[in-house]
């Protein structure tokens, strides 16, 4: 059962489930609540007391996780507003780009979150493959045989494993304009050549993305303010 807890001026929704854990774990779900998987000997009062003692961190993480909650009427794909419509006839999320509408199945909120994650990964990977095609013949970085992956990340836009030639892109970027996705893609493939943020790294990045400074600043502001 989802309950509510007041932390200063923020109302936090949470749900406690008891597991065979040795410790208690907090998961900030993107559909607007904290899933708390507690050890069976952990008392609810102790959990609430812990949240209160660390309220600043909980409020910050909770607000971040609620940037794109799935209980609103709008959803953003690459900076465009899509109106969400419940449809009892569909079992999966259907996107209509012609009239900017998203048709959602009538399911529980956790199932809806999984459905969005599935479609978001598909859409983002498609755009990343287009970027790979666009830059496959660039003279600065060899991007042949790279592996493209996506996942939700709370602290960075992407990551690169030069040894495995794997580029991991933050799934949250699906909500922002495509120019920011392209910047992050270029930022990460530059790490295939220079593994840290050295002067040589930024010199190479500027060749790939001449306006990377402006794009980085804009994306940071949008990501924080959202």
Question: Which features does this protein show?
Answer:
Zincin-like, 4-stranded mixed β-sheet, alpha/beta, 6 helices, 226 residues
Helix content: 25-40%
Order of helices and strands: EEEEHHEEEEHEEEHHH
State the end-to-end CA separation. 28 Å
Q: Please indicate the count of domains.
A: 2
Mean pLDDT: 91
Number of helices: 6
CATH level 3 topology of the largest domain: Zincin-like
What characterizes the major β-sheet? 4 strands, mixed
DSSP strand content = 25-35%
Name of the CATH superfamily of the largest domain: Metalloproteases ("zincins"), catalytic domain
Number of strands: 11
The helix/strand class is alpha/beta
Describe this structure in words.
This protein is an alpha/beta fold and 226 residues long. The protein folds into 2 domains: 3-65, no CATH class; 109-225, Zincin-like, CATH 3.30.2010. It is built from 6 helices and 11 strands. Strands 1-2-4-3 form a 4-stranded mixed β-sheet, covered by helices on one side. A 4-stranded mixed β-sheet has the order 5-6-8-7, with no helix packed on it. Helix 4 crosses helix 6 (212-225). The longest helix has 27 residues, at 109-135. The radius of gyration is 20 Å and the shape is globular.
């Amino acid at each position: 059962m989802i309950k509510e807890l007041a932390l200063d001026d923020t109302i936090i929704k949470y749900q406690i489930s008891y597991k065979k854990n040795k410790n208690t774990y907090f998961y900030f779900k993107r559909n607007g609540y904290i899933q708390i998987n507690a050890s069976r000997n952990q008392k609810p009062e102790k959990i609430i007391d812990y949240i209160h003692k660390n309220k600043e961190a909980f409020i910050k993480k909770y607000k971040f996780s609620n940037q794109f909650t799935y209980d609103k009427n709008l959803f953003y794909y690459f900076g465009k507003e899509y109106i969400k419509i419940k449809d009892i006839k569909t079992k999966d999320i259907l996107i209509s780009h012609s009239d900017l509408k998203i048709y959602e199945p009538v399911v529980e909120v956790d199932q809806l979150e999984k459905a969005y994650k599935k479609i978001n990964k598909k859409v983002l990977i498609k755009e990343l493959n287009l970027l790979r095609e666009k830059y496959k013949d660039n003279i600065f970085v060899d991007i042949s045989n790279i592996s493209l992956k996506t996942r939700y990340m709370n602290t960075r836009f992407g990551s690169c494993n030069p040894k495995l030639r794997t580029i991991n892109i933050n799934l949250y970027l699906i909500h922002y304009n495509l120019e920011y996705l392209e910047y992050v893609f270029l930022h990460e493939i530059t790490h295939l050549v220079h593994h840290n943020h050295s002067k040589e790294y930024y010199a190479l990045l500027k060749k790939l993305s001449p306006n990377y400074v402006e794009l980085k600043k804009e994306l940071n502001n949008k990501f924080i303010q959202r």
